[in-house]
Specification:
The protein has 459 residues and is of the alpha+beta class. It has helices at residues 3-34, 39-61, 117-122, 131-143, 146-157, 163-189, 270-283, 300-309, 319-333, 338-353, 358-366, 373-388, 395-400, 409-422, 431-445, 449-455; strands spanning 73-75, 81-94, 97-107, 114-115, 201-214, 234-248, 254-256, 262-266, 289-296, 314-317. The chain binds zinc ion.
């Protein structure tokens, strides 16, 4: 900045000091009169004053001079040259409130496109929100409903924004993160991932699941719902997580490495999701893992993905999921008979499932006869489920290797990553909007937002 600019900044600082001094005078006089001071009103008032004078300062900083004669052209994207026209101003909302920027405008006589090089430099191209404000909007938008985010912006930062503005910014940033992920996934498909060097990982787990979120009507047109003949009002988010384990407790139970869980997910096909999860596992050291484990419920798409993207991994059906299947069956066999359900579970869960005696469990289930055709169907379906997944239910063997057999990590993830943000009542998502917020949220939760934000302009 030139010496004139510095003087201007100094003058603004003086003004700040004067304004705050005046505020304090008013406050002290009031306290002398009444013997009382409302601290909250005072602090909010002073913050607001600071913002106001701060905005004067920022506005001063953003008054760009007319470019000198030798700098009145800039290259245009079309290959020709854009020429300086005049100074243009626009309002920008910053962390200290609304400010005015005045900067040179260049026009290309060849393609008639106008340009503001200063906007590019300041990262306010095509937006009236400063990077600081956009970052706040992204932070609240990934965490809470957009309107609540708007309220938080007012309370915490004294900034007036619209609900729509929180939504637009959070979605735009999320979409940008998702776009970066797609490029990364593209490179993975080309087998062009950078080799990540580092210590080997003793045990690396990949776990996945699906969870439905409510969507707007157009996103379910022509799709089959869960109840036959009725359209579904939800779409499935596929969520994956990766975590590591290096230790176990005195009793030999595995301990998850603290803060080692990262998430990735989207509404997308199993094929797309498989590549996504592979890239996440790769980032977390899949190639350096001494032992690799894939966990999931019994859903077929999960094991297809496991075979395709994670060959050689130990496959485990989450014990809690398997128990859930048994409970479902128990309730069908002994409707309205809790004691009957419990007795049946004791026999089949504790003595067979938990002990990995799946062949016996399947035989036991198949030997049950029911005259009710629906119950008979359920018996057959569940017997097939256990039969098909028998090798993935060798729980005593897995326990001996000190592996998790039921982690609950992905269930917790479905709740905290997806449910608590995307399944609130009254929410209806577009697939595009949901995927943007999921990308943004995972980026935050994985502790990668700082890096993304730092690097966003380099791309
Ligand atoms: Zn041009």
């Amino acid at each position: 900045m030139d010496s004139r600019g510095k003087k201007t900044a100094a003058a603004v600082l003086e003004e700040v000091a004067r304004e705050v001094g005046q505020w304090l005078n008013v406050l002290f006089r009031g306290r002398r009169k009444t013997g009382h001071m409302d601290l909250e009103a005072s602090e909010i008032m002073i913050r607001s004053a600071m913002h106001r004078v701060g905005a004067v300062g920022v506005t001063q900083l953003l008054q760009f001079p007319v470019p000198p004669a030798e700098q009145r052209t800039v290259p245009c994207f079309c290959g020709h040259t854009a020429h300086y026209q005049e100074l243009h101003s626009k309002s920008v909302l910053t962390a200290v409130g609304p400010v005015e920027i005045s900067r040179p405008y260049y026009l290309c006589p060849h393609c008639h496109n106008g340009r503001f090089p200063a906007d590019v430099e300041l990262d306010i191209e095509n937006t009236e929100l400063s990077p600081g404000v956009r970052r706040m909007q992204a932070a609240v938008g990934q965490e809470t409903p957009f309107d609540h985010g708007r309220q938080q912006m007012k309370l915490l930062a004294d900034l007036e924004v619209t609900t729509k503005s929180v939504e637009r910014t959070a979605e735009a940033i999320g979409a940008d993160i998702a776009q970066g992920e797609r490029q990364e996934i593209g490179r993975a498909v080309q087998l062009d991932l950078p080799i990540i060097l580092g210590k080997s990982v003793p045990i690396l787990y990949v776990q996945m699941d699906g969870t439905g979120i409510p969507v707007v009507k157009k996103e379910t047109l022509g799709r089959q719902g869960k109840t036959e003949g009725q359209p579904s009002h939800t779409r499935e988010v596929k969520l994956g997580c990766v975590f590591t384990q290096t230790a176990w407790d005195k009793k030999g139970f595995p301990i998850r490495d603290p803060d080692s869980t990262t998430y990735t997910g989207a509404i997308e096909t199993a094929e797309e999701f498989g590549k996504r999860l592979y890239v996440e596992a790769w980032k977390r050291g899949w190639s350096r893992a001494e032992k690799k484990v894939v966990m999931g419920d019994g859903a077929e798409w999960i094991w297809n993905l496991a075979e395709q993207h994670f060959p050689g991994a130990v496959q485990i059906v989450d014990l809690y999921h398997a128990r859930q299947h048994l409970w479902d069956l128990a309730r069908r066999l002994y409707p309205n008979n809790e004691a009957g359900q419990k007795a049946w579970m004791k026999l089949h869960q504790k003595r067979l499932l938990d002990k990995g005696k799946i062949e016996k469990l399947v035989a036991a289930i198949r030997s049950i006869h029911s005259t009710n055709s629906e119950v008979a169907d359920k018996i057959r379906i569940e017997a097939d489920y256990f039969d098909r997944n028998a090798d993935r239910m060798c729980y005593p063997k897995f326990r001996k290797q000190r592996l998790f057999v039921g982690s609950g990590v992905i269930e917790a993830g479905c709740k905290t990553v997806i449910g608590s943000r995307l399944k609130k009542s009254g929410m209806f998502w577009t697939v595009r909007g949901a995927n943007a917020i999921i990308a943004l949220r995972c980026c935050h939760l994985n502790g990668r937002f700082e890096d993304y934000w730092e690097q966003r302009l380099a791309a």
